[in-house]
Known about the structure:
alpha/beta; Rossmann fold; Hypothetical Protein Yjia, Chain: A,domain 2; 2 domains; 7-stranded parallel sheet; 14 strands; 30% helix; chaperone; CobW-likC_sf
Amino acid sequence: MDSKDQRLPLTVITGYLGAGKTTLVNHMLRHADGRRIMVLVNDFGDIAVDADLIESQEGDTLTLANGCICCSMGGDLFYALSDALDRQPRPDHLLIEASGVADPTRISEIARAEPELRLDGTIALLDALGFPALVDDAQIGSSLVRQIAAADLIVVSKSDLQAPDALSELKAQVAALAPTARQIEASFGRVPLEVLLGSLSPAEVDEIPQGCAHYGHSGHDHANHDHAEDHEDLYSRWSLARDCIFGQQELADVLKDLPAGLLRLKGFVKLDGCWALVQAVGGRVEIESLPRVPDHIKHTTLVAIGLKGQMDTVELNRLFSR
């Protein structure tokens, strides 16, 4: 989290029952790389089973049981969010694992009402095996459609168990429901944290080659990560640290033309007279003016991650060449 932007980044994780939300959250916690991640788990039943499955440090999980936070527990959610904001030290990131029947749009609206929070994105988990039948169900289908339509990023779980033709048909159906969202496939929640979270950590900044654009391996040592091979096979990275200045409208125009294979872009851009914090996930782009940035940021500094073979790094270099 940017040391000048003291708002707590919040990511909403949604998906129908059994889609793999808890598996994804546990993967994120195991590979937090020093980030303090707090998880707010919403169980729909009386007993908080999902919260018991979270592999978190004691005190880092908040539980809301016996209801869906998007419809009947607004007050309890505000209380839980206040608890997270009052923690000392404050977490670096807050995850809300919504119940399988929750409407993530309503959760996001509640979060936006808190000025000390910044909505980082909505991630929807989709079960590649169960989705085709569930989306056509008269009672369940509408919930799935709402969850997908609200997402910035859609993680298709159990894709390795689905037939290739059926998987292609499913992804086309999902693209029609959420045309601006990005889709990625994952097994057991194995998705790089830089795809899922938008907070640019100092460690990520330190890895960017200064004065040039770079793509390929990020330079991070994956020797102790069991997911390294999976990630390097599926994703490519691009980064830039260059002494270039953009006009505000010029930057907005550039961000409208980001290549389709890009999953997430984040970083600091030098403008005329100030700085901008840039966040792009799926089809959603945010530009925030900052009076200054952390001391270790000297130039326009951006990192991006996308699907290997689909993220056009040549186009990224062209867009940000100044």
